[in-house]
Amino acid sequence: SVDCSFSRGVCDWKQDADDDFDWNPADRDRGDGYYMAVPAFVGHKNDMGRLKLLLTDLKPKSSYCLIFSYRLAGERVGKLRVFLANKKNTPVWEQNKGKDERWRTGKIDIFQGAETTNSVTFESERGKGKTGEMGVDNVILISGLCPED
Description:
The structure is a single chain. The chain has one domain (2-143): Jelly Rolls, CATH 2.60.120.200. Strands 1, 3, 4, 6, 9 and 11 form a 6-stranded antiparallel sheet that branches. A 5-stranded antiparallel sheet has the order 2-5-10-7-8, with no helix packed on it. The protein is mostly beta strands. The protein has strands spanning 2-3, 12-15, 24-27, 34-39, 48-54, 63-73, 78-84, 93-95, 104-111, 119-126, 133-143. The two termini are 18 Å apart. It is built from no helices and 11 strands. It is 0% helix and 48% strand.
């Protein structure tokens, strides 16, 4: 498995230069490292912030599971989407509200076919809300399909 978490990960993360705002590091409550976050008050409604994970060493014709923690805290905070490079315009995962402030786990199967997925993009779309934040943490890539819960 490949640890792409932000505090100690080995992966190559890039801010998108053509979006409206950046994701920023935020300290974890427990004090062990940080996660990436977008506060609800950043930008204007429908503005986008994209954080891209560059995947350079994935083997073609094999499958992977991307597992990550996410949090959508606050009223009408917006949408969090995940895109794979070879399916640019359609999100493979999307969430637009949290039931509460807790961290949850997202899982995405990545199938490497004729085209290799060379990046995963986490996109934050700003909502109407003024409080709360979107957060992403503990991004891990493992070989094989995602396990059932």
